[in-house]
Amino acid sequence: MKNRxxxxxxxxxxxxxxxxxxxxxxxxPRQSALVLHLGKVSAVNRxxxxxxxxxxVDIVHLIDTRVLTLxxxxxxxxxxMDKQEVGIxxxxxxxxxxxxxxxxxxxxxxxxxxTSIAQNIDDNLRKLVAQYPLADVLGSDRTQILDALHGNAxxxxxxxxxxxxxxxxxxxxxxxxxxAALSQHMASAQKAALVNLKAAGTAKASQIxxxxxxxxxxxxxxxxxxxxxxxxxxxxxASAIYAAAYGKDPAFYAFYRSLSVYRDxxxxxxxxLLLDVNxxxxxxxxxxxxxxx
Length: 293
Fold this sequence. Notes:
alpha+beta, Tetrahydropterin Synthase, Chain A, 4 domains, four-stranded antiparallel sheet, 7 helices, 55% helix
């Protein structure tokens, strides 16, 4: 009797555990759960935790929502605008943002999504690279190409409920002809840069000389003006002194001024004066005659 009771209890406990296992499921932080009730989506659980479902009639699909990496095994062979062939290896970061759309469009097949993303990037990579010369693909325009690749791939991936986070180029392999063409282009660019730098230096030097000449002329003009002002002030003071002296003793002042004139006129041996002996010029050189009655 006791053995039968033990068996019944064991079967009951097993049934309960089985029912619980069929009625409960957990959602990991890296996943979202899609619940199908009789083949139709009845719930989407994104928050980690323990959830209940109807046994048998509810089927739970766990969808990975982590950021995944798409990195094709083979590189893409593309041709630039200047007909140079290059091989480009890239990678993309993506994740599922809409689990319901992801499941309904792909039936949860991750490989299908990867194939679609890679095909889209390959097609657009060929179209975009064909619009640029090789030097620009390797240089400043590469950012524009990557931005366009990212935008196009993300727009196409939304139909699967997927977001493309980023697209980056890992490596670019050049053919021998492409490498030679790039080397020649770089040499030409460096030569042009050198010519431009030299021209800029010449123009700068010329401008410096022009500015220096202007500053020189300005300094000379200011100095001349200052000298004239100083001379004018000195002449004015001298005239004032002369006038004051003349006012004190007109006869002495006349004598002093005559001596200055004699010095300036007769001090140079090369000067020849033709004057009448009775000219007032010789007033202080010829003694006056004494008139006798």
